[in-house]
Amino acid sequence: MKLKPTSSNSTSQTMTATTSKEARLLVHETLRISANLASAPPPAAELRLDEASLGLVEGEFVNSSLRLICFEEIDGRRWKYLAENNNGGGSMHFKKGSMRAICLQSPQAPAEELMSFIRSYVVPEGFPDSVIPSYVPYMTWRALKHFFGGAMSVFTTQTLLNSVGVSRNRATPAAVAINWILKDGAGRVGKMLFSRQGKKFDYDLKQLRFSGDLLMELGAAIELATAAVPHLFLPLACAANVAKNVGAVTSTSTRTPIYKAFAKGENIGDVTAKGECVGNVADLLGTGMSIMIAKSNPSLVATFSILSCGYILSSYREVKSVVLHTLNRARFTVAVESFLKTGRVPTLQEGNVRESIFNFPWVKDRPIVLGPRFKEAFQDVNSYLAVEPVFEKERYVVTYNPSQGNVYAVLKDQAKSDDILKAAFHAHVLLHIIRSSNDTKSSEKLAQNDHSVLMPTSADLQAHVAESYKMVLALYGPFKSKAKEQGWVMLESHLNPGRARLCELPR
């Protein structure tokens, strides 16, 4: 017997069919949207993913108009540079002042920063690969020896001052001894801090040697001033000892390379021994002469002034007489400028004589910067994009920043020794072209009674860079050959390039 379905059952079946159809349509639409999202993610989503993986914080640069320009690495830390398009989308023209440098690593912990700071003072650059294994035990025992020696000096100095009858008061010998130890301690701290100059003692040794002698003379002058203000003995004596100890560091650190330059063959030990002997004999003779002069009670200031002038003049002539075979920045500049003007590389004697001794390594005002940060070399992204194609096959990028008035040679991370030398040569060529162009335009302006300031345009700079690239292709090989014929030794380390390197963008 068949039962006839009720009206409620028919209504239920109709609703079920309708719900199933809507569900199928909903699933179909969801799958279609998911496929579209997978095939073409919006720019904002890409940038947020980039933010998560590359270190952007606080959503500051989450904007579809931002574009990744390049990566940079310095001392193991990576940075990325972004800039904002003028019109958004795929435009290659960027807004001025929109460049941002983003660090891709989280900040170092305070303990790690402290350890890095300490390592920069107590171990050589590149440690432990830059030294032999016996360096560590040797320096450990040397540190212990100086520790015990410094501890004993407190008691020996106090005993000596007490023995010569400084005062009959029991407290005075201890107080004087402490002042004397503080004076010596300040000098040792100054010596330790200046030793951080490191590699500068290898390539700018003439400049450092002369500056060290000037500091020695300054220290002697400050010591002389203590006679006029004896109540300021401690601060003046400390300052004088710091200056003299820094001068002593430069003297001892530059002594071996200078003696090595004079040695012919494997006789560096003999040359060093004889040089020290001559210095000691001259020191004894000078001491004897000063004792005889002191007996006549001459004017202290006048005598010191005459002796100081003789000391400084002798120091200058001593440094100028050294002939080094290596091309540091000062001698490299002399060699390249001579080659560009005359077509010949100066001899060793000529290059060393024309080297500036007053071009101290810590002076920042230099027309050429080798290995700078990206943000120092380019005032905006457009200036980088304008010259980058020219150096596509090179491992460096050379540019001129009008706002700074300097030529910058930015090094890529694949740059080797010869690439750095070539970058330095290219920077000098570009500087030579810019100066020649400015001289020509200045003459024209003077003829027209126009005294406005010369500012090269972007088009002029691009033309200068392109011209310099062609000149380097033709001249760098002959320059190296002629420098080698004259006996010059070219190493990138003597040019002291910066540590920043431009990294390739991921493909």
Describe this protein's structure:
Strands 3-2-1-7 form a four-stranded antiparallel beta sheet, with no helix packed on it. It is an alpha+beta fold and 507 residues long. The chain has 16 helices and seven strands. A hairpin with a 4-residue loop joins β5 (396-401) and β6 (406-411). Residues 1-19, 33-63 and 155-161 have low confidence and may be disordered.
For the structure shown, list the relevant keywords:
507 residues; alpha+beta; 3-stranded mixed sheet; 16 helices; globular; disordered N terminus
Write the layout of secondary structure elements.
Elements: H1 7-39, H2 43-54, E1 66-74, E2 77-84, E3 100-103, H3 110-122, H4 135-163, H5 171-194, H6 200-203, H7 205-225, H8 233-262, H9 268-294, H10 300-320, H11 329-342, H12 348-354, E4 368-370, H13 374-377, H14 381-387, E5 396-401, E6 406-411, H15 417-447, H16 458-485, E7 501-503
Helix pairs in contact: 4-5, 5-8, 7-8, 7-10, 8-9, 11-15, 15-16
Gyration radius, in Å: 35 Å
Question: Percentage of helical residues?
Answer: 55-70%
Shape from CA axes?
globular
Main-sheet strand order equals 3-2-1-7
Task: Look at the structure and give the mean pLDDT.
Answer: 74
The SS-based structural class is alpha+beta
> Which runs of at least 5 residues are low in confidence (pLDDT < 50)?
1-19, 33-63, 155-161
Sheet with the most strands?
4 strands, antiparallel
Q: N- to C-terminal separation?
A: 77 Å
Number of strands: 7
| SS strand fraction | 5-15%
How do the SSEs run, as a string of H and E? Answer: HHEEEHHHHHHHHHHEHHEEHHE
Number of helices: 16
